[in-house]
Amino acid sequence: MSLVDSSKLLNWYKSLWSRTVDLVGDFLGSELFIIDGDSLLLECFSNEKLDFSPGFQLLHATYIVEKFLQKLRQRKCVFEIVFFDCNAQLCVPAGTSDDNNYRYLLAREAILQHLVTISQEKEHGLGVHVFESYHSDSFKEYLLDSGAFAFMCHEGVMDEINEIDEVSDSDGDGDDDDSSDEDYQEDNRDDDFTNETKSGKIHFRASSSVIGLRIMIRWFITHGYNIALVNNLEFRDTKIMAMVIQGSVKAQDTSSVQEVLQANISTYSDDSSMMTASELLKMAIHEDPNLTQSQCLLVVSLAVMSKDGSNSLTNTSGFTTAILHLVILQHVKLEDRVIPAFRVLNTQFFDAFLKTSKSVLTSAGWKDAMKRHRLPCDLPDFSDGRMFFQVQTMLDILGVYRVISPTTLLPFNKLASLVDRLCGTKLMIEELDDATEEITSSARSGVNKPGKKLAPEIGGESPKFVKVLPFHNAVFDEHLTPVHLEIEASVDEEIWSSRKFMDLNHWHSSRPLDQKKAILTPRNWWQQKRDQLYMAEMRHYAESLLGSVGMSQTETIVVERSSSSHKTAPVVQEKQPTRSKNKHNARGPTVREQAAAAIQKAASERDHKRKNQWTINLQKFSKVDDTMVRFTRVEDYLSGLSKDDRRIMEPEILTHLLDTLVQAICDKNASEQTEKVLLATHVWSVLARLMKVRQGINADISKYVGKVCQRLELPLVQLETQIEHPLSCKVSNAILKAPKIMTGTDPVGFQLLYGGPFMDRSIDSTPDPRTPDFNPDRWQREVLDQIDQKKSAFIVAPTSAGKTFISFYAMRQILKDDDDGVLVYAAPTKALVNQIAAEVMARFSKSYPEKATSKSVWAIHTRDHRINNPLTCQILITVPHILQIMLLAPANAKTWTPRLKRIIFDEIHCIGQADDGIVWEQLLLLSPCPIIALSATVGNPDEFNSWLQRAQSTNGHDLKMIQHHHRYSDLRKYVYHGPRTFTFEGFSKLDGLSHLGLDDADWMELMHPVLSLADRTRRIPDDFSLEPRDCFTLWRAMTDLQTSDFPVHPSLNPFDRFSGIIIQKKHIIEWQRPLKDLLDTWMKDRKSPFEALLHRLSQPDKTTFATTTTDATGVNKSENPPPSSSSGLFSSTLPLVYSLYAQGALPALFFNYDRSQCEDICHHLLRELQDAETKWKATSSKWKSDMDKWNEWRKQQAKKKSVKTTKVGKGKKGDEDEPMSRADQMRESASVETSQWALFDPERPVEMFSLADSKKLRPSEFAVYAEQLRRREMPKWLIDALERGIGVHHAGMNRKYRQICEILFRKGFLRVVIATGTLALGINMPCKTVVFSGDSVFLTALNFRQAAGRAGRRGFDILGNVVFQQIPTAKVQRLISSRLPDLNGHFPITTSLVLRLFILLHGSGQSASAIKSINSILSQPRICLGGPEMKQTVLHYLRFSIEYLRRNYLLDDTGAPLNFAGCISHLYYTESSSFAFHALLISGYFDGLCKHIGDEKKRPKILHTLMLVMSHLFARVPLRKSVLESWRTAEKRSSSVVILPPLPEEACKILHAHNSQVLDIYSGYVSTFIDQHVKGYDRSLPFSSVKCGGDKSASELGLSQVHNHTAPKIMSLFYALSGKNDSWETVSDLCESIRSDVWLEASVVPYVPVASESHPLNAYLLDFFKHGNIKQLETANKIRRGDIWFVLNDFSMVLATITTTLENFLNPKGNDVDMDMLNIGGRGDSKEFETDAMFVDEEAAEMGAEPTQTDRQERVVPAVSGKGIPRRAGKGRVAESWEDDLSEDVKEAISKETGSNHATGRPNLRLVETGEGLDQSRRSSLVLVYKAFSELKNEFDDKFRAMWA
């Protein structure tokens, strides 16, 4: 291959984007993926702990492979392994000499055959396949059959390429006081090495593996597969974080690299004659058929070596060594095989033996022989180099008779005799005589020859950690009783004596916060302004929800007090009438009867008035000649009625609609079948609605409906007469002459084909007084029962099934019970929080006692904003992080937490998320009250329910799982194939009836759900559903294709099953079940007609008219589109929107899981509309005419205005005493004819080039929204897009913009919104169509179901459309047919949580709720969702987490938190990084670094060093190795910092010391756990459970003289085979090498790798701090554009947390610090807050609310002065700057330390008073540390804020 071609390939690979995802949760789910076997071996063979030369530890290598597979299986991955013969060489690690290649190839073949063997055992569930190459037809067929989703392989970059010793950072040491700022600023030079010297070497090394692997990656990407890199996997707790590569390449582009492929194909070439080997193999097996594969390979290899005739390699000693070494391997215990390496070794014979064995093992003769004879496979333990050399040395020194033992003699002779017979050698040993026995016995007793040192040096030590510090806590001691540890009190004294400079007072105030006197942290003026704006916004937002199902204005209820101290309002509870003592009252009606009569009379009058109004409107409608237009207007009129009006008028209006349709049938006299069906479908839809009417059906309506059914030959509908009143208006006689449009159509067939969406969907529904608005189904009543009984419930029901009312019913119960109970609603997204809060505001109001001035019905609390007091409301809507902070806040433990009555967890499946899932899991374990858990997407509900029941039962709450499997409205799926050419000339007005579904849409292909089951290896998912039409077409196709072996039972015939009835949804569900069972039977049997069934269903269905269409250019619209690309996605969006518009299928949500691409799609769509409009305006005569008329009208208006002004001016002189009256003015105004040109605006989008529905929003209203967005400096194109009815919605968009987008979509003005998954989780944005626009790694089965559920929402649409745009057909099928992934939990007992529990316990004064929380989480036997029962593991881990906290001065011996405990606990979301930060903080490193922060010359360097350290701690993003490779080989580098420079030396030393301490502590954890709970050694391979080694000890085999060392206790024996013992360098080493029956994950250990312990890190934060250029972050640092805001905001939040907690540490005032932390956010959030506050007065007025207006249940609650201006506690003035916000003594201290007057105004947080008891010098240093972090935060935030400029 030429260098040009290789460069092209490497450049292509470098251009690919990657993202790190949760492999199972975010990407694969339960999908099958393929692992490239050679990539797997390459990763395992590259393990630094593996001894392959000279030791050749084959069993250790096998263990590493199986350990990897076991980790995948534990995390519920579904995978198979494939090996390609052409890639065999790719498993050899880079840098391996050619002389050692054979070792890896031999190991490859041995492990491969071992994996193939275990794959044949069903219990392992592993598939292993071998192919010649990935180009082979057999492999392509395998791909099709397997339905694999992704490919996992290595990218071929070795670790040694990535060492960055040469990368230096001259500014790394913060103590270099002599460096100047100028040196710092100018030091942007490149690193001290040349690219040329490195470049050639890298290309040379890459030629064998890098190129070959990347060619393979290119091939798989070409064929539509995403790539997961095996060399970048991180096993984090129960998750697998994987780097996934996305890209696209055309198939023809691979031709230029085919020659590379050929150059890299490796075939097995043998030096020896394989013909001879095959013959010897046959002879060996014939001689002894009971051989194992290792024995057979040994014998044949020695025989081949003997036949070759090389005297130097066929000596008897070598043969004897080889045989005896294998005998020992098969008989000795594994723990006796731990042998250190010898210093001097003769490897000549061993090398030759391995080479020959490799040739034999890879020969075709061997494979054929094993297929025929199936010898037991023990190849993973075929050879052990260390044992071989041990035996070789023993034989050289002692001789064979002193080494052989009676135990090994027989098996040795068995193999030796076989070699003798094959080769003519004499290896057999005669029977041992007595003398030999004596010699051997003495040898075993340790008698050695003088002068020979047989015992090698033994490596490894016992763990350093032996004893723990004293600890006693009554609450925790009860749980820790089973953990027996030795206490060393003297160690405790020594440790604390060495840290006397640290203050040992508790980190917070010694007095618990008195909740009655507490106030939240005073909020400054802009925070108050912002909150006032939020209140006004919330009212406005709630208005957009009105009219939704369950959200009408009349349903807003008033919940009265049930307390005896307040009277109950009549609307809730009526007083019983007292019996009158006056006898004369009995003669006439009672007062009650009179009141009832009056009410009835008023109701009758209202009904009469409504009917009169209908009569008047009907006369207007009757004047419309076009029946279709009339039908549409009456429909709109009906939909606009209130609930009460609808109840009275709906029957008559529906009858009129029915009559109008009959007239349309007569008028049109349709001849086309499609038109007849459309009309008949709409007639049936009206009939279906009449069948659901429960009040108002009279005899006239019933009779007319019967006539319609008979005349049109529709299924007969019989309505029961409910009232006797006649119709207000008579129907026409059109029915008498209407044609019989459905002649010949069976009523059953009509209902199944066309009536499915209109079927009655109630399932066991009955009236229930608890839900007066609807009749709940049985499952809904069960939920209500659980709530009434104050029990817990886990509810699994699909989207649109009717879960919404559950939460509000529970809220109503809490409000009715009393004024103190609290319900918390936890939602995963802030968008959902805002929506629920708005609904609560619209639904509930409540009167509280006058004394309860702070009470409110509801409150919102997120990091973004807070409305109302979260501690005094009754319904708190929040996110999980905030709820966790509140539950663990000591101040809440005695006051707020005991008031909790219920917690609702919406979208509970978020527990499976990699990032925040652990918070959900901890909350479920900590919940002190009954819960309601809601979800539509749980793959393992039974398992999750079992775990949840245990968690709830611990706290004494019963939990019941309630499942419902059926959506209310069906979803119909389509694949969109865009046209090759498309000319857009505007949207035409829609005439006629709307279509149901998209069957007639252009370029749309209907996908029958059964087509998604093309992969027969998959089972039908549990939630796989078919709509009635699908069932009917499936039954019909199966009936046509049935055979005698595969019949369709007559009971499935729908014409018999449903004859004479009106079919309901429940009937379809019952019919669907046996249909799916039969389908499943056909799928499983290869002989069934299943393939023919798929072919039949894929053909256009003439009955449903889902035919392919051809566009005007003759292009078939059903042809497959070109390969997906962003350009194809953009160009096909407008044709798709046009197609949806033409079918009346808008509004639509377009889901794309790339934030930046969402914006790009919107921008492209906007430009296309604008360009088309511009072109039309330039050529349209109508537009020219309109403009001329408008200009003329403007001139006339100007003249009139001029004349009027003149008249008024003259009239002032003579008519001043006769002004025009108000009535005259109104008459004059009414007489002025409004011209159409008064509403004409040429700047507004032309209607035919806009998707906005102008009827739903006045231009003046939109102008208000537009102005609000302009104030926030939103890009003009986004506002223009909104004006044309197009919006974008993702988490990175401005909060105000997102809110406006949601409001306008609900109003119906916006009709297309392009969004990420932010709208998939429960947001009420009902739409007709959901489009999945483009593929993504995040488009998984889970996200598909969540997003698709937005279509066809209950109460809005009877059918939802789901469209796939630019997504491969195979992916579409997989999404529809995939089962939901199982929920896997996390190990929730983190070190941070342990610390927070102690803070809770101590800070609350051992409160009952705190104790309950601790007992709740520690009493769980199965602490981890999806994990085994591991209570003892949890307790040991807990005890050693306490030990870690003790040794790091965060807890005292009673568990009281110390020193910086508060700071570290509030950084809980960074977990391990927070403890590394603490190590630097408590060591005084930051004190030394920041001591000169006041020196302006040194300040930049200090901040740079501080930023470097913080980047190492809190921005640990590994660089993709290929990115690093390309950066190092680049001829010209950008000025960006790509590789994070090393830590400063002092910081590195401190963290190394910290990590060493952590290593000692957690190795002690493992050691004590093994002592108490583990017996024996782990001798079995972890995945296959194959037992390795024998049962004989070393002494029994004659090896005691060289085995005078002990086996490792902690380390796995398999790891120890490579010469290691119980000693480790890093925590990662400990976790990797620990024995498999002990649990320890690196992710739960509080340590951060430093320097050589970790891979190179991305310097994106340091780079941004350097130049503030986000474009460089995207191009150089490879941070995705859509992710930049989030990663920067996350770090800004870290800085905010640190500065706030340092302030609180220095100034403990007794305030509730935990509650203060709720308001901490990143600069990205606060920038929006400040902007909101700037315009609060204008925008509150625009939304019709006064910003100062407050309300008893909706109020902002920060502490404020009497005039509403925030003031500092204890001060008499307003803080106007940060200096004012500091107390005088602190300002003086900072000035004294820094020598500055603080005129720069950088710190923005307050230091109120000196921390009590803190050493003065230490305090002074911490003040400077605080100042440095404040300055760093401000400088970083300034650059971050500049992103908006």
UniProtKB/TrEMBL annotation:
<feature type="domain" description="Helicase C-terminal">
    <location>
        <begin position="1233"/>
        <end position="1395"/>
    </location>
</feature>
<protein>
    <submittedName>
        <fullName>DEAD/DEAH box helicase</fullName>
    </submittedName>
</protein>
<feature type="region of interest" description="Disordered">
    <location>
        <begin position="1193"/>
        <end position="1235"/>
    </location>
</feature>
<dbReference type="InterPro" id="IPR055124">
    <property type="entry name" value="PIN-like_DDX60"/>
</dbReference>
<keyword id="KW-0067">ATP-binding</keyword>
<feature type="region of interest" description="Disordered">
    <location>
        <begin position="165"/>
        <end position="196"/>
    </location>
</feature>
<dbReference type="Pfam" id="PF00270">
    <property type="entry name" value="DEAD"/>
</dbReference>
<dbReference type="InterPro" id="IPR052431">
    <property type="entry name" value="SKI2_subfamily_helicases"/>
</dbReference>
<dbReference type="GO" id="GO:0005737">
    <property type="term" value="C:cytoplasm"/>
</dbReference>
<feature type="compositionally biased region" description="Acidic residues">
    <location>
        <begin position="165"/>
        <end position="194"/>
    </location>
</feature>
<keyword id="KW-0347">Helicase</keyword>
<dbReference type="InterPro" id="IPR014001">
    <property type="entry name" value="Helicase_ATP-bd"/>
</dbReference>
<feature type="domain" description="Helicase ATP-binding">
    <location>
        <begin position="784"/>
        <end position="956"/>
    </location>
</feature>
<dbReference type="InterPro" id="IPR059032">
    <property type="entry name" value="WHD_DDX60"/>
</dbReference>
<dbReference type="GO" id="GO:0003676">
    <property type="term" value="F:nucleic acid binding"/>
</dbReference>
<dbReference type="GO" id="GO:0005524">
    <property type="term" value="F:ATP binding"/>
</dbReference>
<dbReference type="InterPro" id="IPR001650">
    <property type="entry name" value="Helicase_C-like"/>
</dbReference>
<dbReference type="Pfam" id="PF26076">
    <property type="entry name" value="WHD_DDX60"/>
</dbReference>
<dbReference type="Pfam" id="PF23002">
    <property type="entry name" value="PIN-like_DDX60"/>
</dbReference>
<dbReference type="InterPro" id="IPR027417">
    <property type="entry name" value="P-loop_NTPase"/>
</dbReference>
<keyword id="KW-0547">Nucleotide-binding</keyword>
<dbReference type="InterPro" id="IPR011545">
    <property type="entry name" value="DEAD/DEAH_box_helicase_dom"/>
</dbReference>
<feature type="compositionally biased region" description="Basic residues">
    <location>
        <begin position="1196"/>
        <end position="1211"/>
    </location>
</feature>
<dbReference type="Pfam" id="PF00271">
    <property type="entry name" value="Helicase_C"/>
</dbReference>
<keyword id="KW-0378">Hydrolase</keyword>
<feature type="region of interest" description="Disordered">
    <location>
        <begin position="1105"/>
        <end position="1128"/>
    </location>
</feature>
<dbReference type="GO" id="GO:0016787">
    <property type="term" value="F:hydrolase activity"/>
</dbReference>
<feature type="compositionally biased region" description="Basic and acidic residues">
    <location>
        <begin position="1212"/>
        <end position="1227"/>
    </location>
</feature>
<dbReference type="GO" id="GO:0004386">
    <property type="term" value="F:helicase activity"/>
</dbReference>
<feature type="region of interest" description="Disordered">
    <location>
        <begin position="560"/>
        <end position="592"/>
    </location>
</feature>
<feature type="region of interest" description="Disordered">
    <location>
        <begin position="1791"/>
        <end position="1812"/>
    </location>
</feature>
